[in-house]
Amino acid sequence: MTSPPTMKLAFLLLSLFHATTARQVNITVDASKVLGSLSPVARFFGADEPNYATYPDGKALLQQLGEVVPDQPTYFRTHNLLTTCDPPDDTTPHRLKWGCTNVYTEDEHGQPIFNFTILDEIFDTYLESGVKPYVQTGFMPKALSNHPDPYSFEFDGASAANNIFTGWTNPPTSWEKWGDLIFQWAKHCVERYGKAEVESWYWEVWNEPNIAYWNGTQEQYFMLYDFAVDGVLRALPSATVGGPEVAGGASGDWLGLFLNHTLDGANSATGKNGAPLDFISFHAKGAPTFINATDSVPAHLQMNMAAGLQNVEDAFSVIQSFPTLNQLPVFVGEDDPDSCAACLSPQVDYRNGLIYPSYTAASFTRQIDLAVKHSINLAGTLTWAFEFDDHPFFDGFRVLATNQIDKPILNFFRMFGKMQRQRIDAHSTGQHDLDSVVSSSVRGDSDVGVFASRSEEQDKMAVMIWNYHDDDLPKPDAQISFNISNAFPGHDVARLTHFRIDESHSNAFSAWLAMGSPQNPPQEQLADLKAEGMLKMLHPPAQIELRNGSVEIEFDLPIHAISLLVIEQ
């Protein structure tokens, strides 16, 4: 029997072998075979904390997000847009999992007082950055909550989350006052920003009402939805409204019962049957775990993409069963590898480096495939991550940037923003099939996948290739043999730009580690980190020869790396 020290040595040798021995993968793309239109789904973001948008680092990041897709707007969804500052002069409205606007209070006679100052500052900042609101109508103002105390809370990122669900989760003391609050808010937005602008927004009601974010019954949530939607539409009949942002995909029969309500349930606000519904939204989350060391395997993080994809497939299956609703736009309103952006633990120690973007590439493309499988109009996959001002560099929270240094994950969105509007046929000998990833995630060999697109004018192609595995362990590089056929008829040459996310490209985190992990880097290092945080090319753009519309390109792709090849006339 092999002794434990020998086993560990054997594992180390095996790890070195895997890290240096490439795996041959053949990838083919047929530029003439269009599979359908490709919506720019990866341009939606969100966070618990609305006030960070108006702080220096938040403004800087919003500018970046506004440029993710050059010809399409970015949208931002946030909690706490109606939450009351507690106390009213709270000087820290931007702490973890909290935010407040003081939009609604009441005088001594119980009459509403509306103050949109903070809300206006938040939305103004979005729009100045080229970002549009994906408006969440929540949470319950203290003066409207039927059980307001305790109301505010402190959260340190390590405690159990069940201490945060306080008075803001409760139903209103008056449904009519709740509806009027939403009416006054929507009316104010139309007056401030104009009818055409507000018509381009999405308005949804609350967040995850099937769990502790809503301390009422399901029937009371339907009432909340009815009055909120009625308020929006009284102010702007052409507004786009929807929900229910349910947690856990379909969450049993929750999503189906909500859809039934919008079709023919008793509407508490109008007295009629049914409620307006222009889009459907739900949430999907992965489930990473930390694997303790054994004699043969060291301690390591293991992701679980299947958990989130099963949420997606469950919800898609329910939506598909409603013939009059199943062509509505559908949003995965929070779509992430784990369930809590502001929590820290070994189970979520993936957020600074390469696993996060490669996971997202492999997951988002599978969700697009699931939408095709179930004939779903997938309009957006919303990443619940933003930034926290005045926090340490690379502290491990699920954010897109840290102290105005972009993390590798943000470069995935920059890559996806370069994808073109027609999906084309692509195959990889290293790609796991859809059903196996949905059922079992990515274990065994790594998932060397491909997702290809072309412009409608047929003068540009963008092809994304990733090398992903659930385990944060050494794995073989992929030796890619990449062949395109039927490209640019009548042309003999094209221009190739090869973008890369890996240890030495588009990766400020690895650069920061190489600097010794400074928490107070001098200006020269800060400038270097900002530069390393941008999307980088693997090599300078090059001219490539086409032979009868075909070209073959070879390159290595390390584990958890992503390549984007843009080929154009």
TrEMBL record:
Provide the organism lineage as a comma list: Eukaryota, Fungi, Dikarya, Basidiomycota, Agaricomycotina
Q: Which family does it belong to?
A: Belongs to the glycosyl hydrolase 39 family.
Record domain Glycosyl hydrolases family 39 N-terminal catalytic: where: 102-531
Keyword set includes Hydrolase: yes
Q: Where does the signal peptide begin and end? A: 1-22
Alphabetical UniProt keywords: Glycosidase, Hydrolase, Signal
Provide a Gene Ontology MF annotation, just one.
hydrolase activity, hydrolyzing O-glycosyl compounds
Q: Does the keyword Hydrolase apply?
A: yes
- The name this protein carries in UniProt is Glycosyl hydrolases family 39 N-terminal catalytic domain-containing protein
Q: Where is the active site?
A: E208
State any GO BP term from the record.
carbohydrate metabolic process
Return the InterPro entries for the record: GH, GH39_cat, Glyco_hydro_39, Glycosyl_Hydrolase_39
Q: Which Pfam families match?
A: Glyco_hydro_39
